[in-house]
Amino acid sequence: MERASLIAPLVRPGKCDSAVEEMEAERVENVLQTTGAERVIANYLPGRLEEAGWNARMFEECRKWLKANTASGQRVYYGQKVREKFREPEDVDPQELVKPLTKFGMSLTPKEVSTEVVEHIVKVIKENITN
Questions:
Q1: Does pLDDT of 55 surpass 90?
Q2: Which residues contact 44 (CB under 8 A, 6 or more apart)?
Q3: Of residues 59, 57, 60, the one with CA closest to residue 110
C-alpha cells in the first residue's frame, strides 16, 4: 500500500462521502477514545518520529521556509526598507508556517511508522467493534 493512502483517511476528519461512512467514522472515533487507543497513539508517535529523524528534517524545512518568506533570509540593499516588504520570523503566525508544510511533513512520515499506527488502529477496531 502507498504511504499517502494509509495516512489520508486518518488526517481527513469530517470528510466522509456518505451518511453511512460518517456514522462509521463516529463509531470508530468513539471506540478509539473509549479504549484509550487514541491517547496511546498520541503518546507513541512523537518518540517514534524522533527516532526516525522526522523532527530534524521538519525543523530544517521550517528554517528554509522562514528564510524564503521572511526578512531573515532576504538580501538587504542600501536604503531598502526591509520591514515594510518582509516580516521578521517572530511575526509569522504558526498556522501560516504549518499550512504549506503539512503535506510535505506527511510525505516524510516513515512508512514503518504509518503502518504501525494503522495496524494498531485496525487491531483496536477488530477487538472492539462487532457487527
A1: yes
A2: 117
A3: 57
Cell of 84: 515594510
Q: Is the pTM higher than 0.85?
A: no
Which domain does 14 fall in, by range? 3-128
Residue 107, Cβ density class (10 Å: 0-12 exposed, 13-18 middle, ≥19 buried): exposed
What is the domain count for the chain?
A: 1
Question: How much is the average pLDDT of 104-128?
Answer: 89
Q: What is the 3-state secondary structure (H, E, C) of the chain?
A: CCHHHHHHHHHCCCCCCCHHHHHHHHHHHHHHHHHCHHHHHHHHHHHHHHHHCHHHHHHHHHHHHHHHHCCCCCCCCCCCCHHHHCCCHHHCCHHHHHHHHHHHHHHHCCHHHHHHHHHHHHHHHHHHCCC
